[in-house]
Amino acid sequence: MKITLLVVGKTTSAELVRLIDEYVGRLRHYVPFEMTVLPELRNTKSLSETQQKEQEGDMVLRATEGHFVVLLDEHGKEYRSIDFSAQLQRWMNSGRNLTFVVGGPYGFSPAVYARADAQISLSKMTFSHQMIRLLFTEQLYRAMTILRGEPYHHE
User: Fold this and answer.
1) Is 26 exposed, middle or buried (0-12, 13-18, 19+ CB in 10 A)?
2) At 120, is the pLDDT very low, low, confident or very high (cuts 50, 70, 90)?
3) pLDDT tens-place string over residues 76-91
4) Domains (range + CATH), the chain
């Protein structure tokens, strides 16, 4: 079982890359983990929002075939960190590769929503797609420390 964070487009901020890499390194002590970057679409000015979502959606669907897919989506279920760790354990117990997906700037296509096994929200607030990568890797690391009873998380 492997956990993947699937994102559209590279992280452009060197500061964010450094922090994300730190949490990715920490996560790998607990579970096989990788962040997979799908290429950004080209010529998006000639595409409607719907067309962009559909093209990105096709890439997401190909990349997640056979995986348990969790969308990071503003309409998803919100968890406290301790509750997220328990849910994460249930998902990991399925034995399937677990992929969390951050969509492009316009969100997900209907086909991706239909394919998803679950949706979670990190907040009711909106964050940039690049910032979410850091916030989510930190929360995933936090969940792993909670599951191991380590002193990173304080209630």
Assistant:
1) middle
2) very high
3) 999 999 999 999 999 9
4) 3-147 (3.40.1280.10)
> What residue spans of the chain are helical by DSSP H?
14-27, 49-63, 81-93, 110-115, 129-147
- Which of 113, 10, 36 has the alpha carbon at shortest distance from 70? 113
SS3 36: strand
**β pairing state of 3-8 and 33-38:** parallel
Three-class DSSP category at 27? helix
Can you read off the two tokens belonging to residue 37? 């970057």
SS3 44: helix
Element at 102 (helix H, strand E): strand 98-102
- pTM above the 0.85 mark? yes
What does the pLDDT look like over 39-50, one tens digit per residue?
A: 988 888 888 899
